[in-house]
UniProtKB/TrEMBL annotation:
Lineage of producing organism: Bacteria, Pseudomonadati, Pseudomonadota, Gammaproteobacteria, Alteromonadales
DALR anticodon binding domain ranges (all copies): 460-577
Family matches, as PANTHER family: ARGININE--TRNA LIGASE, CYTOPLASMIC, ARGINYL-TRNA SYNTHETASE
HAMAP family, A to Z: Arg_tRNA_synth
Subunit and partners: Monomer.
Superkingdom assignment: Bacteria
Tagged with keyword ATP-binding: yes
Listed name of the protein: Arginine--tRNA ligase
């Protein structure tokens, strides 16, 4: 149930009934509780158009709009705003329906095919904190899109190709000669990369060998490809361990690395040349982009082939767009990387549109994110200044949560506590990231993210277990609980309106690819629930049978919303903690 849609439709009908076609229907949330929940702001513009007084137009709209079932009060305010107060009977009826509906009355969207390109680590190195953001934000957005009924195709555009593999393969080749197995040699990719780099920079002849390897690799030399495949397989296993710990939905079949586009790059270049989009410039093949000129009027230069014949990251992205359009039939593409790549994707889109690789109606959306900073406001690093491996970070989260959980009073067994700690620890790291505005930098701080107060995973997980324990005490099954609900108190009213707005929140996350909107929402749900629970006791002896079952209904709806919301964010809930 999407309140915004329903109200908009009713106002559109009213305006039409007044004989006005295609008028905009601006509707927003009210900013103050005494203004009701929603506000229709269309009277002012219509008044201008019709040369009448805004308040008169508002009066006419009121006379025409049919909202008796939904609103307890409609009032004109200020220059001609119409404030809408939602009716308790309507909210009550919704609660009963929502309790019976496993989808909580969420309206499915018209299904689109959406490609989501996320995580996409570079396999030359271990996954680091920079890939945390792409992986979990991307996965949360994927879940929202699927929940709303879209056909989502995950694409893990792994960096498994390129010149740095020359150096790595040369080093691996030498290591394997001295009989070390690949798994052992590559058990720590970070160390391995560092060793190879030291040799590349210092050892006579090594850099040349590394370059030879690149040529052989690109030429499809079988022995070289075999070595490369060994490296890639082990590196993918490292990533998969992280995905498992992180509880994200990426599987091997979602990998479509840069290497998979390699055979098609020559075709892309030929096609761009044939279409006259690409020109030669100082031996390289480039596209000039006058739409993105600098202040001297020089167009941006987008290189698709280097003078030596090598292809680039950009060429691969053009091939990816073509593949996604022709083979995957993508109508919308979302790509999650940090904001330093914003320019690249803007240019890529322009070139792809010139080449006709993207239909006009298809969107190509780079969804940038900011950096993860330490408490010193600098990029998040170890004390000695090294990048932090994602896998170490997640282990630390679980260890810290174990300490936290062991300090709490609880009747759980040691094993159950371990399970709780893992869920709380991983949940805290993911939630801390997801809850920040995607596009800005944020400070990674263990203490705040593991706090049971504030907008954190532990707070929400705890709120959920609280409802669970209410149901245990009531000896009722929450998941199948049905009740006739009667919304009466202000706290109940506010809570139910918030619960109903879940649909609007999902829609916003779908549109903007911003999971933090969902986090803020869930935090508000939990806070309104606590307020309701304090003012409207559920299990106290003085509460009537009727009130108790109605309030249990609200408890169940709250918990179900929290659970679905957290699950969508990729965060598990607990039965008790
Ligand atoms: N591998 C890249 C990186 O780590 C991200 C790739 C994003 N996707 C793409 N189609 N370019 O920065």
């Amino acid at each position: 149930m999407n309140i915004h849609h329903l109200l908009s439709a009713r106002f559109a009908q009213a305006v039409q009934a007044m004989g006005i076609q295609d008028a905009p229907i601006p509707l927003s949330r009210s900013t103050r509780p005494d203004f009701g929940e929603y506000q229709f702001n269309g009277a002012m513009a219509l008044a201008k158009q019709l040369k009448q007084k805004p308040r008169d137009i508002a009066e006419q709209i009121l006379a025409n709009v049919k909202l008796d079932d939904v609103a307890s009060k409609l009032e004109i305010a200020g220059p001609g705003f119409i404030n809408i107060h939602l009716k308790n009977e309507w909210l009550s009826a919704w609660c009963e329906r929502a309790l019976q509906d496993s989808k909580l009355t969420i309206e499915p969207h018209e299904s689109k095919t959406i490609v989501v390109d996320y995580s996409s680590p570079n396999l030359a190195k271990e996954m680091h904190v920079g890939h945390l953001r792409s992986t979990i934000i991307g996965d949360a957005v994927v879940n929202v899109l699927e929940y709303l009924g879209h056909h989502v195709i995950r694409q893990n555009h792994m960096g498994d190709w390129g010149t740095q593999f020359g150096m790595l393969l040369a080093h691996l080749n030498d290591k394997l000669k001295s009989s070390s197995v690949a798994e052992t040699a590559l058990s720590d990719l970070e160390d391995f990369y560092r060793e190879a780099k030291v040799r590349f920079d210092n050892e006579a002849g090594f850099a040349d060998r590394a370059r030879d390897y690149v040529v052989q690799l690109q030429g499809g030399d079988a022995a070289c490809l075999k070595l490369w495949q060994q490296f890639i397989d082990i590196s993918i296993q490292h990533s998969e361990e992280v995905y498992k710990k992180l509880n994200v939905s990426l599987k091997r079949e979602h990998i479509m690395g840069e290497s998979s586009y390699n055979p098609d790059l020559v075709n892309v270049l030929a096609d761009l040349t044939e279409k006259g989009i690409v020109v030669e410039d100082q031996g390289a093949k480039v596209v000039f982009i006058p739409e993105m000129s600098n202040k001297d009027g020089d167009p941006a230069v987008y290189i698709v082939q280097k003078s030596g014949g090598g292809y680039l990251y950009a060429t691969t992205d053009l091939a990816a767009i073509r593949y996604r359009a022709n083979q995957l039939h993508a109508q919308r593409t979302l790509i999650f990387t940090d904001n330093r790549q914003a320019l690249h994707f803007k240019q890529t889109e322009i070139v792809a549109r010139k080449a006709g690789y993207l239909a006009e109606s298809d969107s190509y959306e780079h969804c940038p994110f900011g950096m993860m900073l330490g408490k010193d406001n600098k990029p998040f690093k170890t004390r000695s200044g090294e990048t932090i491996k994602l896998s170490d970070l997640l282990d630390e989260a679980i260890e810290r949560a174990e300490v936290l959980i062991s300090q709490r009073e609880s009747s759980l067994s040691a094993d159950a506590k371990k399970q709780v700690a893992a869920t709380v620890g991983i949940g805290a790291v993911k939630y801390a990231d997801l809850s920040k505005n995607r596009t800005t930098d944020y400070i990674f701080d263990w203490d705040t993210m593991l706090s049971f107060e504030g907008n954190t995973a532990p707070y929400l997980q705890y709120a959920y277990t609280r409802v669970k324990s209410i149901f245990r005490n009531a000896k009722q099954d929450m998941d199948t609980y049905q009740a006739s609900v009667s919304v009466a108190s202000v706290q109940e009213h506010d809570l139910v309106v918030k619960l109903m707005q879940f649909d609007e929140v999902l829609e916003a996350v779908c549109k903007e690819a911003t999971p933090h909107i969902m986090c803020t929402y869930l935090y508000e749900v939990a806070s309104l629930f606590m307020r309701f629970y304090e003012a409207n006791p559920v299990l106290k002896p003085q509460v009537s049978e009727e009130d108790r079952s109605s309030r249990l209904g609200l408890c169940a709806l709250t918990a179900k919303t929290l659970k679905v919301g957290l699950e969508i964010l990729g965060i598990d809930t607990l039965e008790a903690m």
